[in-house]
Amino acid sequence: METVLKTESKEEQKVFNTCWEPCAIEKGMRLIGGKWTGSIVYHLKEGPIRFNELTRRLAGASKKMIDQRLKELESNGMVKRQVLNTRPVGVTYELTPFGESALHILEELRVWSESHDI
């Protein structure tokens, strides 16, 4: 498919393979690109973690924001929530196999960011 774009200089530019639907990159970014979402997934890589421990590790994020992102990750099938039979009742979060499949992407992003001082 070919699309013609007009630029400020009124020259026409032809663009090929225009995406009218969300492309694969956009779909992936919707899953892990939200504020704090990638960081939460990355911190869950070592196994189940309790909510309060996760909030300590993500010191810049509010509990409300972390809770919201965890619910989104759970609804997307990336995170599993487990209620513990303890007093007081505790909750842990861990990655599902689908969530674990995003870890190599986040690790590459971390390496790229560090190597470019971003």
Automatic annotation (TrEMBL):
Pfam families: HxlR. GO terms for molecular function: DNA binding. The keyword Protein transport does not apply. Residues 23-118 form the HTH hxlR-type domain. Keywords: DNA-binding, Transcription, Transcription regulation. InterPro entries: ArsR-like_HTH (IPR011991), HTH_HxlR (IPR002577), WH-like_DNA-bd_sf (IPR036388), WH_DNA-bd_sf (IPR036390). The keyword Transcription applies. CDD domains: HTH_ARSR. This is Helix-turn-helix transcriptional regulator. One of its GO terms (biological process) is regulation of DNA-templated transcription. It comes from Pseudoalteromonas xiamenensis. SUPFAM superfamilies: Winged helix' DNA-binding domain.
